[in-house]
Design a protein that fits this description.
Number of helices: 13
CATH topology of the largest domain: Rossmann fold
Number of strands: 21
Helix content: 25-40%
Oligomer: single chain
Bound molecules: ligand PMT
Shape: elongated
Number of domains: 2
CATH class of the largest domain: Alpha Beta
Strand content: 15-25%
Radius of gyration: 24 Å
Distance between the termini: 9 Å
CATH architecture of the largest domain: 3-Layer(aba) Sandwich
Structural class: alpha/beta
C-alpha cells in the first residue's frame, strides 16, 4: 500500500512514545521506508534501539552529529521524504513548530521539509484546552499542517479526557489519506465558485466583500486531486490557480451567473463557495463620481445564482455555503430548502478561525435529509476534503470499492 513511499516518523517526549513503535511497525509492514527522528526527551521514554529494530534503519537524534549519509542531515532527510509524521507531538513541540523555532533535529527538519506534515498531538486535557495550545493548533492548521487526533480516553496523568494520542491505526489511516488521495471523484464534473464579486459604482469604485477565495480554491484543488474534472469560476482574488483546474475569471454577479449557467448542464456537482454581492448600484457612472456633498445610492438586488440553479437542477448535486452571524443552523436550513440544495455548509462567522479571509474554517454540514455533521477547526483544504468525503459517502460510494492512485 505504501510501497515506495518515504516517511519520517518524528517522536517527541511523551508517554505515548511507546505507541509510536506500533505505528512504525504498521508503516513498515505497509511497505513504507521509515526513518525515525527522536528528540532528546523521546529517548527518556523509548530507546533508539527499539526504533532502529522496528524501522530497519538507523535512528536520527542529533542535529550536530557527524553524518556519513548526508552532508547536512536535516536538509538531506527533508528532501527525501513524502510525509513527515510526528507522533506523539507534545504541546512543546506544537508550540515550537507554530513559532518557527528550530532548535533540534526534528524541528529543524519541519522547517526544511517540503512534504506534508501530520501531527498526532498527545497531552493532558487541560494543556490541550489551554489558550496557547488552541492558538498554536489553529495557526498550524492554517499553515496547512494535518492533524490526527487527539482522542478521548484514559490519560497518563490519571482519569480520562481529551488529549490522548490517536491510536497507531488512526494515525496510519490519516497518513494513508494524505499519501494516497482516493480517486473517488474520477469521472465527476465539478463546478466551484469562489471569492467575492465586485459591483461597479464608477470606473474606480465598487461594492464587494471580504471573501479571499480560499475556501473555494481549496475545494477546487481537493476535487481535482481526487480525480474530478474541475471548473472554477472565480471572482477577483489574488490566489494562484490550483493545478489541473480550468479557471474562469469573472468580476460581477451577473458575469458569474452567466459563466455558471453556461456549464451547469454538463456538471455533476456544484459548490457555491463564492460570496456573491447581494446588491449592485442601480447606475454605473461612466465618470468618476465627484465628492460634492452627500451621495445617495440606489441599489438593485442581484440575481441569486444558487436559487436559479436550484430551480433548473435535474441530476446535479448542489452544495451551498451559508455565512451567518446568528441562528446559524436555522438560517442555513432555510437556505437549504429555499434554494433546493442537497447540502449546505454553514460557517459561524462569530467563531475565531471561521469564515472570511482566514486560512481555517469551522463548519457544520447540513444535508437535505436532515443529517448534520459538525467539523472542528481545520485548514480550508482539510474542510474541503471532509466535504468531498461526506458527499461521496452519501451519494457515490459503491460499498467495498476503494480506488487509489498508485
Ligand atoms: O473566500 P474565503 O475568504 O475563504 O471565505 C469563505 C466564505 C466565508 C466566503 C465561504 O465559506 C462562504 O460561506 N461562502 C458563501 C457566503 C455567502 O455569500 O453566503 P450567503 O448566505 O450570502 O449565500 C448563501 C449561498 O447562496 C452561497 O452559496 C452563495 O454563493 C449563494 N448566493 C448568494 C447570493 C447570490 N446572489 N447568489 C448566490 O449564488
Amino acid at each position: 500500500m505504501f510501497n515506495g513511499k518515504r516517511l519520517i516518523l518524528g517522536v517527541t517526549g511523551g508517554i505515548a512514545a511507546y505507541k509510536a513503535v506500533e505505528l512504525c511497525r504498521l508503516l513498515v509492514k505497509a511497505g513504507a521506508g521509515v526513518r525515525v527522528v527522536m528528540t532528546a526527551a523521546a529517548g527518556r521514554f523509548v530507546t533508539p534501539l527499539t526504533f532502529q529494530t522496528t524501522s530497519g534503519n538507523r535512528v536520527y537524534q542529533d542535529l550536530f552529529a557527524a553524518n556519513e549519509e548526508y552532508s547536512v542531515a536535516h536538509v538531506g532527510l527533508a528532501q527525501e521524504t513524502d510525509l513527515l509524521v510526528i507522533a506523539p507531538a507534545t504541546a512543546n513541540c506544537l508550540g515550537k513548530i507554530a513559532a518557527g523555532i528550530a532548535d533540534d533535529l526534528l524541528t529543524t527538519l519541519v522547517l526544511a521539509a517540503r512534504s506534508p506534515v501530520l501531527l498526532a498531538p498527545a497531552m493532558n486535557e487541560a494543556m490541550w484546552d489551554s489558550a496557547q495550545v488552541r492558538a498554536n493548533v489553529a495557526r498550524l492548521a492554517g499553515l496547512g499542517f494535518f492533524f490526527a487526533g487527539p482522542a478521548d480516553g484514559e490519560l497518563a496523568c490519571g482519569g480520562a479526557g481529551h488529549g490522548r494520542m490517536a491510536s497507531p491505526e488512526e494515525i496510519f489511516a490519516a497518513a494513508g489519506d494524505i499519501l494516497l488521495q482516493p480517486q473517488k471523484w474520477r469521472g465527476k464534473r465539478v463546478l466551484v465558485t469562489a471569492g467575492p464579486t465586485r459591483e461597479a459604482l464608477d470606473p474606480v469604485r465598487f461594492l464587494t466583500n471580504r471573501s479571499s477565495g480560499r475556501m473555494g480554491y481549496a475545494l477546487a484543488r481537493a476535487a481535482s486531486e481526487q480525480g474530478a474534472a474541475v471548473t472554477l469560476v472565480s471572482g477577483p482574488v489574488s490566489l494562484p490557480p490550483p493545478a489541473g483546474v480550468e479557471v474562469i475569471r469573472v468580476t460581477a454577479a451577473q458575469e458569474m451567473l452567466e459563466a455558471v449557467l453556461q456549464r451547469f448542464h454538463e456538471t455533476d456537482v456544484v459548490f457555491k463557495a463564492a460570496a456573491v454581492a447581494d446588491f449592485r448600484p442601480a447606475v454605473e457612472s461612466g465618470q468618476k463620481i465627484k465628492k460634492s456633498g452627500e451621495l445617495t445610492l440606489t441599489l438593485l438586488k442581484n440575481p441569486d445564482i444558487l436559487a436559479e440553479l436550484g430551480r433548473r437542477k435535474k441530476q446535479q448535486l448542489l452544495v451551498g455555503f451559508a455565512a451567518e452571524t446568528e441562528n446559524v443552523g436555522m438560517y442555513a436550513r432555510g437556505k437549504l430548502s429555499a434554494k433546493n440544495l442537497d447540502l449546505i455548509v454553514a460557517n459561524d462567522l462569530t467563531q475565531e478561525g471561521a469564515g472570511f479571509d482566514v486560512d481555517t474554517n469551522i463548519v457544520q454540514l447540513i444535508f437535505r435529509d436532515g443529517t448534520i455533521k459538525s467539523l472542528p477547526i481545520l485548514s480550508k483544504l482539510e474542510v474541503a476534503r471532509a466535504i468531498l468525503g461526506e458527499l461521496r459517502q452519501k451519494y457515490f460510494d459503491v460499498p467495498g470499492e476503494i480506488v487509489y492512485e498508485t
